[in-house]
């Protein structure tokens, strides 16, 4: 599903170049559950942004579902993000004036999907997330765990093949965090490819495959002993 070859990304911090990604080589099969860990400044979020087509490499190649994404125009990248990729962030990024249901429904509206089809897709998602009785509440009327479930609903409403989660439990208490992790893992069990960036070692260890980054490089790439142990062989 994913193949990254020889990717570099450099930013300027003042006058000093920062090598955020340095010769990244990575292959991820469809349906994998992978965590990306490492110290602050190691390049984890930069890698996630690139995988999510929010950024482009300075050098190298990134294929997603067989498509060479580097030459795509910004408009093409936006369409690809909308249809193929879901994002879950630490800070939720919900629209304050929209209800929980409206936040989840927003990608469908932006995609021009008819109201009847939007409702057909929305109700099962609300039920699965346990948000039916909170559907009309604004974000400031929800708990942190509920807000993150709304964010997950928004991320999956377009039925993406790839779900990218950046510190998804970072703002949550332990119980809410455990509920969010369980939900993400259920989605992965349904076939969504799940990539989680985290500082939480316990969360990172739950993944079937664990990538560690230091100074913009991948320094380790370990798989659990699961029945599907060919994680690194395909694209």
From TrEMBL:
<dbReference type="GO" id="GO:0005524">
    <property type="term" value="F:ATP binding"/>
</dbReference>
<dbReference type="GO" id="GO:1902495">
    <property type="term" value="C:transmembrane transporter complex"/>
</dbReference>
<dbReference type="InterPro" id="IPR027417">
    <property type="entry name" value="P-loop_NTPase"/>
</dbReference>
<dbReference type="InterPro" id="IPR003439">
    <property type="entry name" value="ABC_transporter-like_ATP-bd"/>
</dbReference>
<keyword id="KW-0067">ATP-binding</keyword>
<dbReference type="InterPro" id="IPR003593">
    <property type="entry name" value="AAA+_ATPase"/>
</dbReference>
<dbReference type="Pfam" id="PF00005">
    <property type="entry name" value="ABC_tran"/>
</dbReference>
<dbReference type="GO" id="GO:0022857">
    <property type="term" value="F:transmembrane transporter activity"/>
</dbReference>
<feature type="domain" description="ABC transporter">
    <location>
        <begin position="2"/>
        <end position="235"/>
    </location>
</feature>
<keyword id="KW-0813">Transport</keyword>
<protein>
    <submittedName>
        <fullName>ATP-binding cassette domain-containing protein</fullName>
    </submittedName>
</protein>
<dbReference type="InterPro" id="IPR015854">
    <property type="entry name" value="ABC_transpr_LolD-like"/>
</dbReference>
<keyword id="KW-0547">Nucleotide-binding</keyword>
<dbReference type="InterPro" id="IPR017911">
    <property type="entry name" value="MacB-like_ATP-bd"/>
</dbReference>
<dbReference type="InterPro" id="IPR017871">
    <property type="entry name" value="ABC_transporter-like_CS"/>
</dbReference>
<dbReference type="GO" id="GO:0016887">
    <property type="term" value="F:ATP hydrolysis activity"/>
</dbReference>
<dbReference type="GO" id="GO:0005886">
    <property type="term" value="C:plasma membrane"/>
</dbReference>
<comment type="similarity">
    <text>Belongs to the ABC transporter superfamily. Macrolide exporter (TC 3.A.1.122) family.</text>
</comment>
């Amino acid at each position: 599903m994913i193949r990254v070859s020889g990717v570099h990304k450099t930013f300027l911090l003042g006058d000093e170049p920062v090598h955020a990604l340095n010769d990244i080589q990575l292959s991820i099969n469809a349906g994998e559950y992978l965590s990306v860990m490492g110290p602050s400044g190691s390049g984890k979020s930069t890698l996630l942004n690139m995988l999510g087509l929010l950024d482009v490499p300075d050098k190298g190649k990134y294929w997603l579902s067989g498509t060479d994404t580097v030459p795509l125009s910004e408009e093409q990248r936006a369409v690809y993000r909308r249809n193929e990729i879901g994002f879950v962030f630490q800070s939720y990024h919900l629209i304050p004036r929209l209800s929980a249901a409206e936040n989840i429904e927003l990608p469908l509206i932006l995609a021009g999907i008819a109201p009847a089809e939007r409702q057909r897709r929305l109700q099962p998602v609300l039920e699965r997330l346990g948000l039916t009785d909170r559907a009309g509440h604004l974000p400031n009327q929800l708990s942190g765990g509920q807000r993150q479930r709304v964010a997950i609903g928004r991320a999956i409403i377009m039925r993406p093949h790839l779900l990218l989660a950046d510190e998804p439990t970072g703002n949550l208490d332990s119980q809410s965090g455990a509920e969010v992790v369980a939900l993400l893992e259920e989605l992965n069990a349904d076939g969504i490819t799940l990539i989680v960036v985290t500082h939480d070692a316990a969360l990172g260890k739950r993944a079937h495959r664990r990538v560690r980054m230091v100074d913009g490089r991948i320094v380790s790439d370990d798989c659990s002993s699961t029945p599907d142990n060919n994680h690194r062989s395909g694209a």
